[in-house]
Amino acid sequence: EIVLTQSPGTLSLSPGERATLSCRASQSINSSYLAWYQQKPGQAPRLLIYGASSRATGIPDRFSGSGSGTDFTLTISRLEPEDFAVYYCQQYGSSPGTFGQGTKVEIK
Amino acid sequence: QVQLQESGPGLVKPSQTLSLTCTVSGGSISSGGYYWSWIRQHPGKGLEWIGYIYYSGSTYYNPSLKSRVTISVDTSKNQFSLKLSSVTAADTAVYYCARRTQLWLGGGVDYWGQGTLVTVSS
Question: Which of A50, A86, B71, B77 has the smallest number of Cβ neighbours within 10 A?
Answer without folding.
Answer: B77
